[in-house]
Amino acid sequence: MSWLPSRLPFLKGPARSQVPIVTTDEIVPVHLFDSTTALQSCILVWLFRFNERLDPDKLHDSLSRVFQREGWRKLGGRYRRRSNDGKLEIHIPKPFTAQRPPVHFTRETFNTRMDEHPLASKLPQATGKVTTFPGPRAFNALAMGPGSPATYDDLIYDDKPQFSLHVTNFTDGTLVGLGHSHMTADLLGLTAVIEAWCQELAGESDKIKPFGGVEEDGMKGLYEPPTQEKHILAGKELQGSGLAYWGLRAVWQAKNARLASRTLCIPKTTMEKLATQAKSQMTRQPSDTLPPDGRDAHFISDGDVLAALLCRLNAQNQSTMSRNIVTMMALDPRTRAPSAFRTDVAYAGNSPTAVFFECSAQDAVDMSLGDLALCARQAIAAQATEEQMKAYAALSAESVRARNMNVMFGDRNMAFQLMSNWLKASLFEKIDFSPAIVEEASSAARAASQHKRGHPVYYHSADPGDVEGPYVMHLVVVMGADHDGNLWMSCVLPETTWSDLVGFLDSL
């Protein structure tokens, strides 16, 4: 609920003023889907753990050089609010200077091992069994250095860069903290930044893709001109009084449900057992209406199985079995909509696409896990076509212009959960900081894991809120599978659901 103080005037602190405009700055627009109310209030704080000691200056210098490239300079700019209409824009220093750098950079060094540090010693590590850890917010002190923007107001009023980098060296490894506004990039947008960063660090700047979406919206091809195809869920938009009722009810129920944020590690063998069980329980016939995608009609992914499991656990805690469980799944269109995106261009920003998986609580409880996972897969297959993504983007464009929020499908009484699956992003694999290594991992660390040198052994993303909350909705993030095959998740769930989830996984 970090957005609340910015929306209720009596909870605000003293009024703040924007710093004077620098007349030499280049000014570029903030695009349609990048300044919604939800994104404005969200700062993302990433933390990556490495078993090697890395050179902080090499990491900082290489990222700064990326943001000084043509087009990429946009990511080194500052958010400002126009005085005439209040709309956001980005002011890019020309040139960047030590006083106005492209990246806010801080560093810290501890002459101890991580397991000797009071907070770093609590960072999640695989144990060989299903294990939960404190949620990502608990470690923000390790990811954010002095002066790192923590709120929307910090970005607007303090002339801060969009990205902050905080590198902490220990005797046995390195923690790399990276913060940015969600207005700047979604997951795949950040992945494009990381790819360019690694290429610059490796001396391969000639491989960095040109940056798209500076003056013209990089997502525009999804919603202009609007597709003639109707979205399959059109008519089920949640808006007006129905949206207000659902929102108030969701906040009230979240408060009473005692939502808790935790990180979950599922060992490779446990995930394999879960997937095998789900596939063995499939009895439903695939829908004949699904577009062919070259896969077995009975294909279900690990993400589908996890979506089904969390849907069922949500349903088990409902007071009425007639209530619908709606899972909104983040969906990236960059590789799924070839007519809207070029493969040789890097796109940051935020994609206006999603999949909605809906079923009644009764069905979620009665169906086998495999059949429920197949329903999730069918929702993805039906809604992730290029024209369906364009149809959703067109509806969301209208909604953002009118209400500054993307379209939601569902009903006023639904139980809602948000799911984001990062498995395909492969961040454990794509992040390669090996050129910045100044001291290799210990022999014990190398023996304990199959991780690649210079690649993270763990990571998570948080926001700067309090670790105890409050939290306002069920959130399921599948962060990825590490090099040993352990699957990592970050979730916000009721205490009862956490107990049910861990108990079920332990029983496999």
TrEMBL record:
It comes from the Eukaryota. It holds the Pfam family Transferase. GO terms for molecular function: acyltransferase activity, transferring groups other than amino-acyl groups. InterPro entries: CAT-like_dom_sf, Plant_Fungal_Acyltransferase. This is Uncharacterized protein. It comes from Emericellopsis cladophorae.
